[in-house]
Specification:
- With about 190 residues, this protein is an alpha+beta fold.
- The protein is built from six helices and four strands.
- It has a four-stranded antiparallel beta sheet.
- Strand 1 and strand 2 (about 30-35) form a beta hairpin.
- Helix 1 runs antiparallel to helix 3, helix 1 (about 5-15) packs parallel to helix 4 and helix 3 (about 65-85) runs antiparallel to helix 4.
């Protein structure tokens, strides 16, 4: 069995995961934003759910997700180099690309969560306090913080296809590096290749 070929196929599947939905942003269980890996790379997430037809005022400011761009780049470069090289050298480059892609993918999601939390906290602290006979300024800020904590970023199938494809590809590359795959199977009585 040619594990190197299977590793290349798994990595291609992982790269295709960037075209599928990668993340959704929800507030109290209602999806408000969704993005494929490609949309995260271009800074073009789309409003979803009740906001699907709304103007994109807040998403116009969206910046490309550098972590997702780097994850795609190292996976693609590792795969291209894996096609150019042979044997264990190809497996080593594809393994490095797969491991870096998985790490950068998880980092990018956690970075999105951290940035969202930071921005929501800044907005709630800077929010003007209105004259309100029922709630003090501190209570109004606390309500804003509670609303911010209800917002969640969740990984979607594209993220898991990417991570899974890269993981399977990485395991297959490890098998090639260990000398398990890629060798031609000889029939009994057949001489080894020269």
């Amino acid at each position: 069995m040619d594990y190197l070929l299977l590793a290349r196929i798994a990595k291609l599947v992982g790269l295709l995961g960037f075209l599928l939905p990668w993340v959704t942003v929800s507030c109290s269980g209602n999806v408000i934003l969704e993005a494929t890996g490609l949309q995260l790379m271009t800074g073009d997430p789309q409003p979803a759910g009740a906001l699907a037809g709304a103007e994109q005022n807040q998403t116009d400011d969206a910046e490309p997700a550098v972590g997702v761009i780097l994850a795609f780049a190292v996976a693609a470069i590792g795969l291209v180099v894996g096609f150019l090289l042979k044997g264990k050298q190809a497996a080593g480059s594809m393994l490095a690309g797969a491991v870096l892609c998985i790490g950068l993918s998880f980092y990018s999601i956690e970075n999105m969560r951290t940035e969202l939390t930071r921005e929501m906290n800044e907005q709630s602290n800077d929010a003007p306090v209105e004259d309100n006979p029922f709630f003090s300024g501190d209570q109004q800020r606390e309500f804003a913080r509670a609303a911010a904590s209800a917002i969640r970023i969740e990984e979607e199938e594209g993220f898991w296809v990417t991570v899974g494809g890269m993981g399977v590809g990485g395991i297959l590359c490890l098998l090639v590096l260990a000398g398990v795959g890629g060798a031609a199977v000889r029939r009994p009585g057949e001489a080894p290749p020269a």
